[in-house]
Design brief:
Mean pLDDT: 77
Structural class: mainly alpha
Strand content: under 5%
Number of helices: 12
Largest sheet: 2 strands, antiparallel
Shape: globular
Strand order of the largest sheet: 1-2
Radius of gyration: 28 Å
Number of strands: 4
Helix content: over 70%
Order of helices and strands: HHHHEEEHHHEHHHHH
Number of domains: 2
Length: 314
């Protein structure tokens, strides 16, 4: 019995734990460092949450702006719509308090994102090569900026159009608008989060192209499926079943798919240029030796050179 346990322990050590070991830092030290960085992240986010909760009422008022206003890019200002005043109600004793907590928590997470990304970067950077660091650092920064851009685009443009369409439809049908604060906050925050993620689509496609998982011709072949998938995802993700909001979410998703195709094509050309630069070097080295760049084993004597040719005169 003891021999079996010893064999199992040795197998776990050889196949599970040793591959996780780093020459610079054992796996247990990695876990301790991860725990420390997670603790720091939670503490900083909690401190920011205390500040945002103190201003939760103001944040909710800002969140209500797209309900009865439209943003005009020319004057960079909000213009009131023709909608009647829409009062907010709460249907449970703790509903208003809980919505303040929800809004404060989301804004705290968004505000603490730069620090969270910094902790993630400091944790993973020791295990990256120099070339990987040059690629991952801009990618992490662009990921945060793309998410913020998606949230801003939704707040200033998409959310006002969606709310104006839905409220106008109900008013024209003869209903009196009265919105629960929980329903409105959930609707607005969901829209903001989804559009923040939609703006990450080009970066995700670029990352897959960088790793060689997809390329531009492959993405072009599946354009029709991407368009269909965009509408299916939009139908699932939109909080309302109307086709108007579905189009507002599906069309930007597909547009960013096309942007991802362009980005993937750029990386494919760059990769092809790098590989093409290596071929003339091999041919030049072979010409210096007076031999063809053959890597086969057939019809080759024992004294012949096999493999990548090199300049022996050095």
């Amino acid at each position: 019995m003891s021999n079996g346990l010893n064999s199992l322990n040795q197998w776990l050590q050889d196949t599970i734990f040793k591959p996780l070991e780093d020459k610079k830092m054992p796996v247990m030290e990695h876990l301790v460092e991860l725990q420390v960085r997670l603790t720091r992240t939670v503490i900083i986010t909690a401190v920011v949450f205390v500040v945002t909760f103190f201003y939760a009422d103001t944040l909710v008022k800002w969140l209500r702006i797209p309900l009865q206003n439209m943003f005009t890019p020319g004057s960079l200002s909000w213009v009131p719509t023709d909608l009647p005043t829409v009062p907010f109600v709460f249907l449970a004793p703790a509903e208003a308090l809980w919505q303040n907590v929800k809004v404060a928590g989301l804004f705290a997470l968004v505000a603490a994102t730069p620090y969270i990304l910094l902790e993630v970067w400091q944790f993973v950077v020791p295990g990256l090569h120099a070339q990987e660091r040059r690629f991952v650092a801009p990618f992490v920064l662009l990921t945060a900026l793309a998410f913020y851009a998606g949230v801003g685009f939704s707040f200033f443009f998409v959310l006002p159009f969606a709310l104006n369409f839905l409220i106008s439809y109900g008013v024209n049908a003869g209903f009196v608008p009265q919105i629960s604060i929980a329903q409105y906050v959930g609707f607005a925050l969901w829209f903001l989060m989804i559009f923040g993620l939609i703006f990450e689509v080009p970066l995700a496609i670029t990352l897959m192209a960088k790793f060689g998982w997809v390329d531009a011709p492959f993405l072009k072949r599946y354009r029709k499926w991407a368009l269909l998938g965009s509408f299916i995802f939009a139908a699932v993700l939109t909080p309302t079943p109307d086709p108007f909001n579905q189009c507002l979410m599906a069309l930007p998703m597909y547009v960013f798919y096309e942007v991802g195709i362009i980005s993937a094509g750029f990386f494919n050309k760059k990769k092809a240029a790098t590989e093409g630069a290596g071929m003339p070097a091999m041919a030049t080295a072979a010409a210096g030796n007076g031999k063809a760049p053959s890597v086969g084993l057939s019809n080759v004597g024992d004294s012949d050179y096999v493999g990548v040719p090199t300049d022996r005169r050095r």
